[in-house]
Design goal:
The chain has about 110 residues and is of the alpha+beta class. It is built from three helices and five strands, in the order ααβββββα. It is about 30% helix and about 40% strand.
Length: about 110
């Protein structure tokens, strides 16, 4: 992999980790709002425009699945998606999603 591509992926991962930590520290009530009101928008990383988003899914067991992603738009559609997710409970506890959980949410 070229150094500039490695640097871009590392910068994306770093930004994703920052955003993930920010959302993971929010109270359940604020996260619950993400079910109907996705947050995010255009961001720039290393001079490249990307889209950041955070949203929640009701897991129907009292928990929320919260997903934080950064996408880069390419010529024919989305590519280079990086995502992290966690489950949030009303008592304030969180558990990071495993790869299988992310796959279950369409990643």
């Amino acid at each position: 992999m070229r150094k500039d591509k490695q640097a871009l992926l590392a910068a994306k991962r770093e930004r994703l980790d920052v955003e993930f930590a920010k959302y993971r520290s929010k109270p359940f009530e604020q996260l619950y709002r993400l079910i109907e009101d996705e947050e995010g928008g255009e961001i720039e990383i290393n001079g490249i425009e990307m889209v950041f988003s955070a949203f929640a899914v009701d897991e129907n067991d009292g928990r929320l699945g919260v997903l934080v992603e950064i996408r880069r738009m390419r010529f024919l559609g989305w590519s280079q998606v990086q995502v992290r997710g966690f489950y949030a409970s009303p008592n304030g506890s969180t558990v990071e999603m495993e790869n299988e959980d992310l796959w279950g949410h369409g990643y």
